[in-house]
Amino acid sequence: MNTLIIYASKYGCTAECANKLKARLHGDTTVLDVKSVTTSMDLSKFDTVVIGGSVYVGKMAKPLRAFCENNLDTFLQKKVGIFLCCGLPDEANTVLTANLPSTLLKHAKTTKVFGSEARLDKMNFVDKMMIKAVTKGDFSTFKVSGERIYAFAKEIAS
User: Fold this and answer.
1) Do residues 105 and 97 lie in contact, with contact meaning Cβ atoms separated by under 8 Å?
2) Which of 36, 40, 87, 128 is 20 to 30 A from 71, comparing alpha carbons?
3) Rounded (10°) angle between helices 146-157 and 13-24
């Protein structure tokens, strides 16, 4: 199985989750930050595509959304999984439907929220103030779930 994990990460949590997922998958797996894709990418060598995105103010990164739109027809011919790094997991379905094509979501073999981390030391001032306001300073629920990453890996491999 040749797998591409394409992700967008603002402060590093999604990048780390992509690499943790890679460690759980069998076969040849390529992990790629969508920001490093400068031209049309040849996706023909991949059997499976995993899309990973961080969520800020209900949005996934614009370059990741554009990559999904631009490669939708190709993705619909492959096994697809989608994961989010999101501090508010109850909003995951709303985020997914607002950011990705419905045909891609219906086609996906699995979708999961891996959790999130509040990396205040890396955040800019505005993001730091927004996250503090939304959480009221309680970051106790902001954790990445190794169990969800493991479950995702099992589901995408089956």
Assistant:
1) yes
2) 87
3) 50
Structure-token pair, residue 69: 């739109």
In contact, 24 and 150? CB cutoff 8 Å: yes
Closest CA to 87 of 107, 124, 58: 58
Task: Delineate the domains of the chain, giving CATH numbers in brackets.
Answer: 2-157 (3.40.50.360)
* Rounded-to-integer distance, Cα 111 and Cα 96, Å: 9
Q: Which residue has the tokens 């989750």?
A: 17
- Hey, what are 135's tokens? 């959480």
Token pair belonging to 121: 């030391």
Q: Cα–Cα distances in Å, from 40 out to 33, 54, 116?
A: 14, 23, 30
> Burial letters for 33-56: b for 16+ Cβ neighbours within 10 Å, e otherwise?
bbeebeeebeeeebebbbbbbbbe
Q: What is residue 90's predicted lDDT score, i.e. its pLDDT?
A: 80
Which run of H or of E encompasses 82?
strand 79-85
